[in-house]
Amino acid sequence: MEMAATLGPAADYRGIVASSASGCVRLVDTLLAHIEKLEPEHRCFEHIDAEAVRARARWLDERRDALGHLPLYGMPVGVKDIIDVAGLRTSNGLPTALATTASEDAAVVRDLQAQGAIIVGKTVSTELAFLHPARTRNPRGTDFTPGGSSAGSAAGVAAGMVAAAVGTQTGGSVTRPASFCGVHAVKTTSGLIDRTGVLSQSPTLDTVGFLACDAEALAAIMEGLTPLQPPGGDVPGRIGLLAGGMVDRAPDYVREALHRIERHCADRVSRVVLDPLFDRCVPVRQRINMFELRYQFEHFMTGYGNHLSDTLKAGYREGEGVTVEDYFAAIREGADIRRYVNGLLEQFDYLLLPSALGEPPKGLESTGDSLYNAPWSLLGNPTVTLPLCAGPNGMPFGLQLVGRHFSERALIAAGAALSARFAEAL
């Protein structure tokens, strides 16, 4: 089933910016009006300083000759509200009364602006980037979850409010909302993007990622932030389609989509039955996450416990039950699984699996299951979400391409090249 398009004016930001000498101002005026119209329904933003956005656009227009070559020139970007933007509140998904105003930009925000981006505002995050659902609604269908924790970032891109947005992932918080909202995304290699100025839930697992209206925008972001990384080359010749264990838990319509790709792309795609060791990714990641969350969030629990959800408190209590011995055993087990997956990536250029268990669940009581995201948060591999599919309700689900560590630019290029071929099969 084909997915309905909902992307708005931000998807055409390049054309608007290039349309006149005041193209950046024209773009932000268009977007601010679009946001004002849709925000009451979709609830993607925590805070926008419209005058600061317009001032940034004017500044870029005045320097078009000097800065117009930058890869992110004029790109409107949302920033997840666990990431500092100077002069704006950082709420971390908590009540406004607990927000603080950032005195300086997070490293990733500074780097985006240095490459010409326009920071439109702070996008809604779930509470402390954990599991308790946020107020954001999915633009593809407001009765369905947008996912989490980067809910506002994914929905803002899907609604055409921004061309791209910064998210973070500890479990599945970039890939899953991208899949549910039908947008492109890259979950970067652990440690690639500086996390200074970003709330930390689990230092071992926390990773910065990006969601975007198209693969070209993702490629521009990685070009701007990782200019020394080799760009993509030829279309990869060997794709390993993961099967067995947890992957076989996908619903029939997801598995049928993968089977069609396997049949149509038999010259490139080969099935790989996973070793049972791979299924250990989920409990191992969970143990590491909860142990580290217990220490990272102790000050929130002691200072603001009355304001926190039962969901977060339950996670904190789970972390209290993880011993130091269990934690380091999980770290060692994660290293064993990483060696196994690195071996697969010596046999194949990329690995392929769904981005989520299927289309987003109906209802707003949860953010969905991170089953297919947890392994890559644990193992640190980069992943790209390709928004190619739709389920029986017409809601999106993505396919996920996994690459070797620090191969983001090649991975994005491979995803863009393979998308057309996969779409033929679907």
Task: Describe the structure in your own words.
- The structure is a single chain.
- This protein has about 425 residues and is an alpha/beta fold.
- The protein folds into 2 domains: about 10-225, Amidase signature (AS) enzymes, CATH 3.90.1300; about 240-280 and about 325-425, Amidase signature (AS) domain (Amidase signature (AS) enzymes, Alpha-Beta Complex).
- It has helices at about 15, 25-40, 50-60, 65, 105-115, 150-160, 175-180, 215-225, 250-265, 280-295, 300-305, 310-320, 325-345, 375-380, 410-425, and strands spanning about 45, 75-80, 90, 100, 120-125, 165-170, 185, 205-210, 240-245, 270-275, 350-355, 385-390, 395-400.
- The strands form 2 sheets. It has an 11-stranded mixed beta sheet, with helices on both faces. Strands 3-4 form a two-stranded antiparallel ribbon.
- Helix 9 (about 250-265) links the parallel strand 9 (about 240-245) and strand 10 (about 270-275).
- Helix 2 packs antiparallel against helix 3 (about 50-60), helix 6 runs parallel beside helix 7 (about 175-180) and helix 9 (about 250-265) packs across helix 15.
- Belongs to the amidase family.
